[in-house]
Inverse folding.
């Protein structure tokens, strides 16, 4: 009997493997290369293909472990816990990860047309969503106490999430903002930089001044701002940089000397 965890991770692994094959053929793969992992032909763009295939193999490996240890089997869990019946858990909490996952899938689709970097960005977003959503689902069912579940999840994930999220936001924000500033005029670059700075300061002041603010509202505001900056960076990358006028000081100096 296949367990619930096995079905999820095996399906995820098959989807990632199929995505790797599709990505391989759309980025220059030929013959049987993407299907044979490069044994009979080219696999296309190596980084994206390797990431997708590696994630797929990892998901299938997790699926095998889950089915071996009978994950989500109430009878097996009750036996190992030494009880007759598993206690009922509360309903799972609402999650915004499906929205972020849809954004990652959209970025991957756009990246197939625009640039490899956009595809890899969407792939990383989808991987993060898979991990975070998995941890939320695990924590919601860890015990029958929602508060204890929240504390347990934060104890496991907070040491990883906080530094990783901070580094990712800084890196993506700097890269996307730089693309926007390079694509606009001199005055437009000043205006964009000022507006983005004011928005970041406003969100920070709002959070500091009102500690009781709803977490979902704060996360939604940050997500909207991040999506706006990232979308602007993608559009600016497609548009290209503005024309820069380069002044050749050495040539001007030579002409001045010849004139004298």
């Amino acid at each position: 009997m296949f367990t619930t965890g096995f079905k999820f991770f095996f399906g995820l692994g098959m989807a990632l493997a199929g995505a790797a094959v599709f990505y391989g053929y759309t980025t220059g793969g030929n013959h049987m290369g993407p299907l044979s992992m490069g044994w009979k032909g080219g696999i296309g763009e190596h980084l994206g293909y390797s990431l997708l295939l590696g994630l797929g193999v990892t998901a299938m490996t997790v699926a095998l472990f889950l089915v071996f240890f009978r994950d989500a089997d109430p009878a097996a869990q009750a036996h190992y816990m030494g009880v007759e019946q598993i206690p009922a858990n509360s309903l799972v909490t609402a999650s915004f990860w499906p929205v972020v996952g849809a954004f990652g899938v959209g970025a991957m689709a756009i990246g197939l047309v625009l640039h490899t970097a956009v595809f890899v960005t969407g792939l990383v977003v989808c991987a993060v969503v898979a991990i975070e959503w998995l941890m939320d689902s695990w924590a919601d069912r860890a015990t029958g106490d929602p508060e204890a579940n929240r504390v347990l999840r934060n104890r496991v994930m907070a040491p990883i999430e906080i530094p990783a999220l901070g580094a990712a936001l800084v890196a993506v924000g700097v890269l996307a903002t730089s693309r926007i500033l390079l694509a606009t005029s001199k005055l437009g670059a000043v205006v964009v930089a000022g507006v983005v700075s004011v928005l970041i300061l406003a969100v920070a002041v709002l959070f500091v001044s009102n500690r009781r603010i709803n977490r979902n509202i704060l996360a939604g505001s940050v997500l909207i701002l991040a999506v706006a900056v990232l979308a602007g960076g993608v559009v600016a990358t497609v548009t290209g940089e503005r024309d820069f006028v380069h002044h050749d000081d050495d040539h001007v100096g030579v002409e001045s000397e010849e004139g004298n």
Summary: The longest helix spans residues 146-183. The radius of gyration is 25 Å. Residues 10 and 60 are 5 Å apart (CA to CA). Residues 169-242 form one domain.
